[in-house]
Specification:
Layout lengths: L1 H8 L3 H20 L13 H14 L5 H17 L7 H17 L2 H16 L10 H82 L5 H25 L14 H8 L5 E7 L3 E2 L2 H21 L4 E8 L3 E8 L7 H4 L6 H11 L3 E6 L5 E8 L4 E2 H5 L1
Parallel strand pairs: 1-3
Antiparallel strand pairs: 2-7, 3-4, 4-6, 5-6
Helix pairs in contact: 2-3, 2-5, 3-4, 3-5, 4-5, 5-6, 5-7, 6-7, 7-8, 9-10, 10-12
């Protein structure tokens, strides 16, 4: 029984309902009006079995249209061989449905051939075992032919709908291709402008800082830091320009929280003593969220380095169950904090807050009671894979 139920679930619900309707109609006619169709008595229980067989054939008509069609003709032959003179409603309805299915499921040539064969079989009296009058021949030809033509019309409609869907999909792919080409052209233009303007200007700044450092004896720590940062900026620009010129699906990966350690070592020359703490089990964040989290830490750390002088900076990255929290605090030992001087002109406080809110998070920034400055961000983790799980 369970296997039968699983099999029935694979059949279209419409076919099952039609099959049940045929069985119910045949049962009702067998119990009520059998004698009006030439039966010897009323009710005629034998008809109920025939109705069940016909209903089952109708259920499978779309899977096996030719086989069901042939079996229906044989069933009609057997029906009249029993001495039944007329065809009851449930049999006529089933025949019309099967003729319709020939037109809907078969290509025009074989479908039309089988439909013509069926009509000729009925018109010739081979099924009824008698010579049919002209008006009955015309009636059978019209109703069976019309049933086949409605199926043929449905097939044509379905094929046109399929062609239109394929054309729409093709046009959508073409639109996406053209959009990708436009994006690639714009990325190339941006890369060219960055190379011609920004990279050139930063390179000139590095060269002038080097000249000034050498003119002052060559051991000026601040100028050395400017040179190092400038070279790193030029290298980062080179990587970014290369990524912009690459196809979008081949672009280089963007930095994430796993690169904060490298960021700390990069800015460590500026003076602040920076401590990095990671709490919880690190997870691999979605690329956009990972990049935004890294940029928030980078901007907050840049502000601390720029405005807090020799202050100590503490960076805490905490991976909670459904959020990652970023906490960047400096103690503001120079008495001048980012709150008093204003955030840098990069992303700034507004940019950091926008990055957090973009992913449904929040960001708080302001001076601390000890005179320092604190940036705290909460970013919901929509999806993530544990680093330990990834290692396994």
């Amino acid at each position: 029984m369970p296997s039968l139920i699983r099999h029935l679930r694979t059949l279209p619900l419409v076919d099952l309902l039609i099959g049940v309707a045929v069985i119910v109609l045949g049962t009702v006619e067998a119990l009520t009006v059998a004698t009006s169709y030439g039966a010897a008595e009323n009710p005629e229980f034998w008809w109920m079995l025939q109705a069940i067989v016909t209903g089952v054939l109708v259920v499978y008509r779309r899977r096996f249209p030719v086989a069901v069609f042939i079996l229906m003709l044989l069933a009609q032959y057997a029906w009249h061989r029993q001495g039944n003179e007329e065809c009851p409603v449930w049999q006529l309805a089933s025949l019309l449905i099967v003729f319709h299915t020939l037109g809907a499921k078969l290509p025009p040539k074989p479908g039309a051939s089988w439909a013509i064969v069926g009509i000729l079989v009925f018109d010739s009296g081979a099924v009824d075992h008698r010579t049919l009058p002209l008006e009955e021949v015309i009636f059978l030809t019209v109703i069976f032919g019309s049933a086949y033509l409605t199926g043929l019309a449905l097939r044509g409609y379905q094929m046109r709908a399929q062609r239109m869907a394929e054309r729409a999909a093709h046009l959508e792919l073409e639109r996406e291709r053209r959009a990708a080409e436009a994006v690639a052209a714009e990325r190339t233009r941006i890369a060219r402008e960055l190379h011609d303007v920004v990279a050139h200007s930063v390179s000139m700044m590095v060269m002038r800082a080097g000249v000034l450092r050498r003119s002052l004896g060559g051991d000026n720590e601040i100028l050395s830091g400017i040179e190092q940062t400038g070279r790193e900026a030029v290298e980062e620009l080179r990587i970014m320009l290369g990524a912009l010129r690459m196809p979008q699906d081949e672009a280089l990966p963007q930095p994430g929280l796993d690169m904060v350690d490298s960021l700390v070592s990069t800015v460590g020359w500026s003076g602040p003593r920076i401590g990095l703490t990671v709490e919880g089990d690190p997870v691999r964040l979605p690329p956009g969220l990972d990049l935004s989290a890294y940029r928030i830490v980078q901007e907050a750390l840049t502000n601390a380095v720029k405005y807090a002088g020799e202050a100590e900076v503490t960076i805490t990255i905490a991976y909670r169950e459904d959020v990652v929290e970023l906490d960047i605090v400096d103690n503001g030992t120079t008495g001048q904090t980012a709150a008093g001087t204003g955030l840098s002109t990069g992303n700034g406080l507004i940019g950091m807050r926008e990055r957090a809110e973009l992913f449904g998070g929040s960001l708080e920034a302001g001076p601390t009671a000890e005179g320092g400055f604190r940036v705290h961000a909460r970013l919901p983790i929509s999806q993530g894979i544990s680093m330990s799980e990834r290692a396994r």
